[in-house]
Please model this.
Amino acid sequence: MPLTSEEGSRKSTADPMCPQPFRVESVSRETHDTFTLNLQPAGNAERPPFSPGQFSMLYVFGVGELPISISGDPEQARRLAYTVRSVGPATQALVSLRPGDWVGVRGPYGKPWPLQAGRGKDVLIVAGGIGLAPLRPAIFHVLRNRDDYVRLIVLYGARSPGDLLFRKELNAWGRSPDTQVLTTVDYGGVNWRGRVGVVTTLFRHLRLHPDRTVVLVCGPEIMMNYVVAELEQHRGVSAADIYLSMERNMKCAVGFCGHCQYGPYFICRDGPVFSYQQVRGLMGKHEL
Amino acid sequence: MESLEPILAQHSFFEGLDAEYLKLFVGCASNVRYYVGAYLFRTGEDASQFYLIRQGRVALEIYAPQRPPIVVQTLEAGDILGWSWLIPPHRWRFDARVVEGIRAIALDGKCLRTKCEENHDLGYELLKRFVRITTQRLEATRLQLLDVYAPHV
Model:
């Protein structure tokens, strides 16, 4: 599938500050605290196109608005999927919605994953926790356009076996040609037969070709710090080939309000996806 | 019988090691197998070996009274298991339970300790290699302690 612009980002033609009504089509429980909402636009309206890595502002009427990454298949024509972890009142309200309920949707916004940069190369995905959700559309894209890429490697770490998202899909992806999926958990019980250890411990199972690998990383920022250190210092991957999805508190989503300022950038407008080259001087800086 | 020398020589732990030293390791090495549920060692036992895992998966566990054991790490093919044999009092600090059937090369730690005492160059080489592993695992443990996926409201 060709992406639309030089950077691949897609923009809705709707007023960027006006939420569009979407109906909740279904809600699926992924883990004890994380749910995927499938939304459809009202009436016969088309859903806005999006590129992997972009996010929307979801408005729970009477509660508040939240930036949530799109987690579904970009080729799924009628539906937008969002995977939400319940961590506070607004996200709890969002995951409590039921089929037939209405949500306001603004967007999509932001810079997507640079999937063009991965063409003809290996794509290494490193995800931690809920960070797999914004990467899932990129995985769908690579699997759908398999001839454009060489190997697809997915490294995924979660807190415990019960916190692993999309487990059936992870298994299915791992059975695809030239695709390697490795998962691990920080804490495993005695009945868990999989790996126990942080996500960076998975690198020892890989043979990377640093000169022909593009890496997409999403997870808690502290996890990403460890991942980029491993990639750069021990695996020889250039900062220019590493891309990260950053997170800050977003409000307007269009670069006006400044809530998500990150050094010289606004995460909503200039990100959320950045090359590590762009942000390496900012990561780990206090008060940012 | 198949010599273990080519297997050791190909392992990253022994990469760049002087051929004479490698022969010393081969002299202390033997093939071992463990089945699911077996323990390679238990906390407090004499640590007299370390293992180069060739196949399978081992869970390192800490016994916790009145609750299930806590799995702190798993190790698998390509990994080195065990350094307590190198550091006094030479007793295991964990239980090592087999999660997937294990084929491994066991290296006799007592034999190696003697050789390291006799040849400090060998001892220094070995320590450098183990320090690299322990550092990697210490860093991983620190990240694990941060509990980065816990909810932060």
About this structure: DSSP finds four helices and six strands in chain B.
